[in-house]
Structure to design on (665 residues):
């Protein structure tokens, strides 16, 4: 595929698409009920961040938020951290999930490597959630208690979460591909009372028994009183040896005499605890509120994902990534959510596109790396599968390069709305994302999200346009963490987001806001490549290297030297059967010189068998950099946070063998 220039116009919505869009309906509502007239999305966004209280209060009315007590103030203060939203109100997240649904409509489609695709109606979902609520209540669960789950992305996980939130209890989950240490690092911090678990899982055609891990967890969690077991890998698995266990079948046995209730909690009370990747220590336990997530996800699903009851919303994720929690938000607007547990390349590399065809998916969420892999493999899903129902592809995790956008239009569907989005676990949403009434430009994120005062700052804290700076939020946002669990005086929270610009959230990404109001993410700001005072995001390097057909993946780091200069080694994973040669090295360097700049040409290129990545698939740029600088491994990386621990061995040996001289040549 030929290289495409960043900012090339690729798609524009038709007038009918604009008229039907949910954000247009909202703008019409504002005109009628608030006498506010906005001529385009950017004017609406400007109002939403300039008049923060008015905007979020309008959403409270527009989405008909149910509260058993009235709120006293929309926003307690504009100070960060510490701002409180809709103080005095009492709500319940799960109550809004089940609000006026049609019992026979499909709520969930689910499938996995060891389960065929099945559908769950809203009536079935409500019945099972009601029954599971009874089980949790009989297990002593009440408001504020922690319920944890060691489960894959399956139907039972959704039931367990909804029942937990309906009681005002606090949810946290980990995917069963997490090992014992990783799960302990998470669950021990929050002292759960109940755990839901599977016996194992299947991935890429292989079986992974997890009963020994579960037994270890039971011993390591002294507060655990009940374990609810799901025989998932093996339907006849004997899980009775687990202490104080209740089988899933019993846990969803309904007592018809007991009502389905929704515990009313304060708007800012916890809904769930998400964890950071934990690459450099114990994962941060990020607490987000019932009300903040409710309002933000209603906004994101309705206006930015443009979801409705007619949509089937899929995102490839696990329960260990915030995108699972985001996916559940699709239920808030009555959409059918589509769950898949397994490898995206099993039984072949086209399997997810076949799944999209089979499930009639309308919104297909995935990672940028999945799209670039499909691109590099020369796939043509639009030719191979019936994707007539598909209207949107959304991408996150890392920046989607312009070529990824181009590939979607040329090989998936011409009339397609592409949304590259950016946010994170910290806020459990995307705050730079898409909207169906704006055009799509190659390599650019369509817009800053409504209510999100996103800016790009230079080192002096001055706002930039058409220049790369730090991504910051300069006003409170409802789904920001209310606190970190067991974080005395919010010290860890402040160190994480507010130590660069006092009182301003610094996200840690490099961002450019264009004069068209679109955005470009250039990767993590702490992983930037700085050569001779000229900085460049790692995403730009990766975009260039992705064009080399012999290379499957790459990682670059910038290592400071004692003479004030720096070394920038590039590590590449070659395609099957290909070895790195001098000719390929020159090809890579030429591509980077042309695409980026001569000064950012790597000082050395090394072939590696694999790249270390987090369980969520992100490259370990900073830990690798520190290891190569001679830092002790146990101080810079938690191996349990990696999806492929063996990949780190190359870099450890590289540093131990004193190959820094090779890096610096």
């Amino acid at each position: 595929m030929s290289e495409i220039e960043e900012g090339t116009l690729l798609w524009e919505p038709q007038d009918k698409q604009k008229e039907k869009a949910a954000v247009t309906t909202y703008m019409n509502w504002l005109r009628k009920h608030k006498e506010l007239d906005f001529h385009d999305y950017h004017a609406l966004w400007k109002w939403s961040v300039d008049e923060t209280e008015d905007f979020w209060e309008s959403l409270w009315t527009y989405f008909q938020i149910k509260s058993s007590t009235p709120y006293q103030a929309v926003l307690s203060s504009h100070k960060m951290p510490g701002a409180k939203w809709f103080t005095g109100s009492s709500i319940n997240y799960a109550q809004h999930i089940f609000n006026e649904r049609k019992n026979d409509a499909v709520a969930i489609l689910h499938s996995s490597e060891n389960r065929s695709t099945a559908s769950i109606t809203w009536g079935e979902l409500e019945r099972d959630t009601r029954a599971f609520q009874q089980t949790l209540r009989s297990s002593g669960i009440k408001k504020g208690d922690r319920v944890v789950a060691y489960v894959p992305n399956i139907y039972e996980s959704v039931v367990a979460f909804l029942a937990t939130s309906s009681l005002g209890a606090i949810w946290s989950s980990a995917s069963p591909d997490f090992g014992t240490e990783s799960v302990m690092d998470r669950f021990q911090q929050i002292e759960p009372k109940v755990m839901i678990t599977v016996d194992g899982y299947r991935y890429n055609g292989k079986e992974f028994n997890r009963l020994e891990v579960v037994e270890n967890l039971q011993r390591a969690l002294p507060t655990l009183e009940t374990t609810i077991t799901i025989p998932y890998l093996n339907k006849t698995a004997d899980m009775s040896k687990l202490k104080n266990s209740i089988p899933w079948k019993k846990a969803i046995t309904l007592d018809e005499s007991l009502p389905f209730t929704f515990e009313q909690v304060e708007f800012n009370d916890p809904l769930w605890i998400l964890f950071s990747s934990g690459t450099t220590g114990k994962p941060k336990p990020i607490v987000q509120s019932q009300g903040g997530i409710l309002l933000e996800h209603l906004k994101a699903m309705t206006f930015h994902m443009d979801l409705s009851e007619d949509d089937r919303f899929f995102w490839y994720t696990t329960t260990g990534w915030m995108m699972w929690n985001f996916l559940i938000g699709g239920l808030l607007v009555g959409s059918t959510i589509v769950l898949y547990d397994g490898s995206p390349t099993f039984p072949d590399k086209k399997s997810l596109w076949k799944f999209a065809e089979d499930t009639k998916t309308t919104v297909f969420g995935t990672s940028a790396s999945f799209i670039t892999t499909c691109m590099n493999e020369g796939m043509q899903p639009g030719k191979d599968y019936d994707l007539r129902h598909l209207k949107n592809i959304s991408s996150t995790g890392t920046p989607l390069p312009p070529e990824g956008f181009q590939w979607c239009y040329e090989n998936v569907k011409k009339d397609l709305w592409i949304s590259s989005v950016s946010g994170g676990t910290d806020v459990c949403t995307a705050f730079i994302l898409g909207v169906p009434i704006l055009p799509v430009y190659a390599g650019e994120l369509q817009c800053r999200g409504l209510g999100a005062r996103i800016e790009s700052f230079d080192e002096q804290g001055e706002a930039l346009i058409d220049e790369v700076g730090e991504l910051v939020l300069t006003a409170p946002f409802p789904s920001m963490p209310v606190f970190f669990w067991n974080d005395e005086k919010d010290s860890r929270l402040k160190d994480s987001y507010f130590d660069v610009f006092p009182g301003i959230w610094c996200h840690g990404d490099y961002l450019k806001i264009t004069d068209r109001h679109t955005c470009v993410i250039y990767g993590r700001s702490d992983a930037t490549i700085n050569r001779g005072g000229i900085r460049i995001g790692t995403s730009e390097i990766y975009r260039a290297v992705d064009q080399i057909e012999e290379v499957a993946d790459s990682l670059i780091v910038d290592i400071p030297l004692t003479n004030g200069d720096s070394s920038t080694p590039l590590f590449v994973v070659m395609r099957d059967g290909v070895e790195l040669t001098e000719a390929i090295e020159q090809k890579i360097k030429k591509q980077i010189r042309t695409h980026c700049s001569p000064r950012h040409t790597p000082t050395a290129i090394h072939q590696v068998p694999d790249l270390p990545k987090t369980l969520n698939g992100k490259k370990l740029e900073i830990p690798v950099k520190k290891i190569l600088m001679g830092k002790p491994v146990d101080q810079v990386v938690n191996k349990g946070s990696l999806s492929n621990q063996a990949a780190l061995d190359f870099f450890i040996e590289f540093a131990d063998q004193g190959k820094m001289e090779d890096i610096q040549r």
